[in-house]
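Board work, copied verbatim: Phosphatidylinositol transfer protein N-terminal domain-containing protein
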Amino acid sequence: MVQIKEFRIIMPMSMEEYEIGLSYTIMKMEQQNTNSKEGVEVLQQVPFEDEKLGKGQFTSKLYHLQSKIPSWMKGFASSSALTVHEDSWCAFPKSRTVIKCPLFSKCSLTIDTVNRPDNGCSENVHNLNSEQLAAREVEIIDIASISRDYWSKMISAPNVDLSAFKSQKTERGPLLKGWMDSCHPVMTTYKLVVMDAPIWGLGERLEDFIIAGERALFLACHRLCFAWIDEWYGMTVDQIREMERQTDMLLKKTLKKPGKAGSKHEGKRKTLKDEIAVVGSCT
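↓ predict structure ↓
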């Protein structure tokens, strides 16, 4: 059975700040989780234009994170089969991400994101039909909260108490009870996670497990996005793009993956339209 879960993550920042802050946070987390044996490998980063999303940046990555895979899954799969392939089409304020794993080739995981300058009050930003709305489960994530489940431990993100944190540059924080209803500026990232694992005897367990993993990743990433605000506040999009190029080279060097000539700017890539034709659109 296909599971549809919408996570609403409210952030104490403007839309423009969030675009910069999230990019910075993702790069820093990738660096922290990459070593000579495992980590994130950037295959391609190029501009794209799509009739649905508009203009943006296409990114293709491989995640070699076998040590974070649970033992029950390692028992029947090789490390290469557990490598995760992520394709992402980001055209802020919207994006689509498609995640695949060789071991579960029949499964599909898509994440559609819409960002809005509100505090999570928009009810159908993904334009779902009545059937999809009936199946959708909504959860508001408070970045000031702390999770102690399996995935939060595996992500190993730095622990920051946002109820005691205050930004020196912006003087925002601490995030105390009720902050989501009173903070300014404020914006919300609406993430629609659609997971389909048509595997007899394992499908529902796998769907629950993967969605829980995405939730933990969303929480950790957005907690750090605010906790690191004094590091990225004031940066420009051009500075972020240059950092992405430098991070790409650093990750390849750390993982000891030789870069291919022209791999970042040449060659045919799948468009968002091609990918939707394969996995199906959830909006």
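Residues 43 and 153 are 27 Å apart (CA to CA).
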